[in-house]
Amino acid sequence: MSLERELYELGSNFSFMLLNSSLFDKGVLIGLKPITVRCITGKAFSYPQSNPQEYTEAVYTHFKNVNSKVRAMTLLERNCHILRKTFQLPKESVNLLALIVVNSLNPAFNELLETHQGLSDNVLHQLLSEALNVDYLTLKSTFENLAESGLWSSSIYGSEDMLQIHSGFAKALAGKHARDFSDLISNVVILSSKPDLRLSDFEHLDSDVPFAFSRGIDEMPKSGVNILLHGAAGVGKTQYAKLLVNQINANLYEVKAKGGDLSSPDDELDSRRSSTQLRLQYLKMAYRLFESQSDAWLLIDECEDIFASFSLSTRISKDRLHQLLEVNAVPTIWITNHPENIPISCLRRFSLVVELPNLPTDGKFDMVSNCFKGLRLSKGFKEKLAHSEAATPALLENAATLCKICNVKGAVAEEYTNTYLTEVLKLTNEPLEALVYKPELEFDPAYCNLKGDLHSLTDITKTIEKYPEARILLFGPPGTGKSAFVDYVCKKNGLGLVTVKASDVLGKYVGESEGNIARLFEKASNEGKALLIDEADSLLTSREGATKSWEVSQVNELLMQIERFQNPLFIATNHFEALDKALLRRLDFKVELQALRHEQAITLFEEIVGTKLDKGSKSQLSDMTNLTAGDFAVLARRLRFKSNKLDIKMALSLIEFEHLNKGFVRTIGFHSSHS
Q1: 67-86 mean pLDDT
Q2: Are 47 and 55 in contact (CB under 8 A)?
């Protein structure tokens, strides 16, 4: 039987049942147009409305004639039996459920019911009890149980609101050949696939607590069990959740935020109700569905939408969110990229909170090799992917899938992967390859002049080797090569380096900068790398002159992280005098990088231009004080862009220009003249 035929047949039967109830006012039938009657029954009906009494009798007779006294059970009724068993409702509830579905899918039948709109719950229950031949208290109890099922939103105000159900779910009940309730909601509660990553891909987390916890939970009551996984987009949170559940041989079901149609792939954008309301409704359904299944876990991705709704003053109360985390009958894993959007009172109610940082380079290389297995990528290309922070596990999986679908391997697969990642990252303003520090002039110890606690590169190299937690301040004029110096020292000691600048840290919102600082220190610590805070005067300015509270809290956070950091730490600044005094007390060594000596400047100039200087040119160069390697980098860059050789005179003029710019101080205000 077609869905339409089914709805007409059941609509006719329910209409006749309602009309036979002593509480149904047949006088309202005069307001029911002939076309409406025809749309309820699917049968032709035409009668003039000039005589109200005759018209009312004609409508009643029509419903009586089309009423099927003997008929086969419809697909809708079979599915209503599934629904009844799932929510442990009485057998008599099947007719009520079927009536609700017909009322949700046939606007004409709804028009008939709305002739009695505004009845109290008590009178409505009496009317339906008599019409459907269901015991009054049984029907009342059925409504109460259904209100807690998740089949309706939390915004229902009474039984009258429950006479219409989610249109998509109504379609699923009326037209889906379902084996069980999970088939009926299979578009919003979906059995998750097996994990694509392995436990070894998450060795960098260095904690077995989440896995021990999930194993322990598997052997005890599961009420109120919630795990929060947070981290940047694409670091593998969903894969990690799948691994947690897979290791105890349980099933993980993802609760989606579908929109107005549960039986189609349309998302919440097509719904008149918010994603949050829908997901909470579906979550409630899932809890009822799986509460008796010991091997079921639920997954809620992008859960910050649900918790943020409290802050946005929607109808979701704080108490309801608390209850959601305290009494859920099915273990639930919540995933978010933005834990800061979750209220603190809710964070305290999670059984376990786990942050997933970016994979370290070594672990990521193994993950890349596994992900692109069989695609014959070169080792160099895989290393490039492993070193790229922007190429997250999720993006790499997508790239590998693209190559497999297009059936490409080797150099072609590398080209496809590179193109895909570049185009995606272009949209987020992230480079595929990390912006590695690359000075115009390679660092040369021969042009490095140190003064202070450590007098030579050898001293510094040995100090870091002996004291891996050493904190070193580097200061001096611009261009002395502080960043290049740190890069050189780290390479000499076989250390990776994380460089932090103000732009990496400063955020728009209160507390965001402090969070960024903590994450950068944690990244360097987890990966065993040295840390360079470049242009430190932008971040660690003396608190004595601070005018804003966030400036003070930012310096406090940095000082606290510096105290805890156990890897080599370098602080570089051009403005030693601006640094906070508390920072200076925390640093082990203070090293000044000084300008070039005259003979160094001459040698470096000759090396760059490839010509020996005459006595006059040397004298001209010697007259320029405080020259640095950075000044000569400008000359080297100019030579790189000139096809012909740069003459000595022009080269000296360029250096002199840089030299004069250093000493140029522009005064602001009015100049007074004296005659």
Answers
A1: 83
A2: yes
Q: Helix H segments across 67-120?
A: 75-86, 93-105, 107-113
Whole-angstrom CA distances from 511 to 231, 240, 282 are 17, 28, 34
- Tell me the sheet residues that pair with 475: 573, 592
| pLDDT tier for residue 272 given thresholds of 50, 70 and 90 | very low
The per-residue pLDDT for range 214-271, each reduced to its tens digit, is 888 877 767 889 999 998 877 889 999 999 999 899 999 998 765 444 434 344 333 4
Residue 384 amino acid letter? K
Q: Which fold has domain 361-427?
A: Helicase, Ruva Protein; domain 3 (1.10.8)
pLDDT of residue 34: 92
Using the 8-state DSSP alphabet, how is residue 148 labeled? T
79's CB contacts (< 8 A; 6+ apart) are 172, 173, 174, 176, 178, 184
Question: Coil, strand or helix: which one is 469?
Answer: coil
The reported pTM is: 0.60
pLDDT of residue 666: 37
Query: Distances in Å between the alpha carbon of 480 and those of 365, 407, 429, 541, 620?
Result: 36, 52, 31, 21, 21
CATH entry, 445-594, from 3.40.50.720, 3.90.79.10, 3.40.1080.10, 3.40.50.300: 3.40.50.300
Query: Which of the listed CATH numbers 3.40.50.300, 2.30.29.30, 1.10.3720.10, 3.40.630.30 matches domain 189-355?
Result: 3.40.50.300
